[in-house]
């Protein structure tokens, strides 16, 4: 991704997310002022000194990460890599995972539609859409995931955005008296009775945007790492060290 594309992404996020911007110190303030002046309306979530001396890490509301010099004049996009005694470590991915974990922990599990494993050994947070084919395929394997000891917590991420038929369907599922039965029916392509109530669907959708979800299903592991797309139940269990 080039700098122009990054600016376009973060600018599009303005107005969608209202998360507070966090800096600490004169250098971070100056970087913020310079970038905000260069890109009016830019929504910055945080600025902090990176592991690489002289580079500062900027987290944008779009979920993207960019690096800048101390004076805010030069910008670098892409992953920051670090040579370690055991090989190459991706500092950017590690930082994103930590930020994602913090965001999910801060948001809490209130409002998730949960399929709990009887003998829980792991938990995955899945951002899902009612109509997406691979979301439905993954949902069909939830019983297997539960058998492996994996609890599945669903967060809403209607791909067609707020107000769309998929969004309305998710609201109806969430507002149903029996959420699991409604979710099972909706994932099977059946019609769920329309229902409305106070619900967290929009907030969960915004959370997904903030943590970098760009498609569904998006499987977030307990350490904050994200697995994009459908993964067979046995492969996910293997990746979690359960098989």
- Write out the strand line-up for the largest beta sheet, numbering strands in chain order: 7-9-8-10-11
Order of helices and strands: HHEEEEEEHEEHHEHHHEEH
What is the percentage of strand-forming residues? 15-25%
| Shape estimate | globular
The chain-level structural class is alpha+beta
Give average pLDDT, whole number: 87
Low-confidence stretches: 1-23
Describe the 3D structure.
By secondary structure, the protein is α+β, with helices and mostly antiparallel strands. The chain is built from 9 helices and 11 strands. It has helices at 3-13, 26-38, 91-107, 133-139, 142-147, 165-175, 179-187, 201-210, 233-239, and strands at 44-49, 55-60, 65-69, 75-77, 81-84, 87-90, 113-115, 122-128, 150-156, 218-220, 226-228. The strands form 3 sheets. Strands 7-9-8-10-11 form a 5-stranded mixed beta sheet. A 4-stranded antiparallel beta sheet has the order 1-2-3-4. A two-stranded antiparallel sheet has the order 5-6. A hairpin with a 5-residue loop joins strand 3 and strand 4 (75-77). The longest helix has 17 residues, at 91-107. The chain is globular, with a radius of gyration of 20 Å. The model is unreliable at 1-23 (pLDDT under 50).
Task: Write the SSE topology.
Blueprint: H1 3-13, H2 26-38, E1 44-49, E2 55-60, E3 65-69, E4 75-77, E5 81-84, E6 87-90, H3 91-107, E7 113-115, E8 122-128, H4 133-139, H5 142-147, E9 150-156, H6 165-175, H7 179-187, H8 201-210, E10 218-220, E11 226-228, H9 233-239
Parallel strand pairs: 8-9
Antiparallel strand pairs: 1-2, 2-3, 3-4, 5-6, 7-9, 8-10, 10-11
């Amino acid at each position: 991704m080039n700098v122009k594309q990054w600016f376009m992404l973060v600018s599009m996020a303005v107005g969608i997310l209202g998360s507070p911007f966090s800096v600490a110190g004169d250098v971070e303030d100056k970087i913020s002022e310079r970038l905000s002046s260069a890109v009016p309306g830019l929504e910055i979530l945080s600025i902090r000194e990176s592991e690489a001396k002289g580079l500062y890490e900027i987290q944008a509301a779009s979920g993207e990460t960019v690096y800048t010099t101390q004076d805010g004049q030069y910008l670098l996009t892409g992953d920051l890599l670090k040579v370690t005694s055991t090989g190459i470590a991706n500092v950017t991915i590690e930082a994103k995972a930590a930020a994602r974990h913090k965001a999910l922990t801060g948001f809490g599990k209130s409002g998730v539609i949960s399929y709990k494993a009887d003998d829980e050994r792991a938990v995955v947070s899945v951002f899902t859409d009612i109509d997406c084919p691979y979301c439905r395929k993954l949902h069909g394997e939830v019983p297997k995931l539960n058998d492996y000891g994996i609890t599945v917590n669903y967060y809403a991420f209607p791909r067609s955005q707020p107000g769309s038929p998929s969004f309305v369907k998710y609201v109806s599922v969430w507002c149903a008296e029996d959420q699991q039965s409604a979710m099972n029916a909706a994932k099977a392509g059946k019609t769920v009775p329309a229902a409305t109530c106070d619900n967290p669907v929009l907030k969960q959708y915004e959370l997904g945007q903030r943590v970098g979800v760009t498609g569904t299903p998006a499987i977030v592991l307990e350490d904050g790492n994200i697995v994009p797309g459908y993964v067979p139940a046995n492969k996910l269990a293997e990746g979690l060290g359960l098989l």
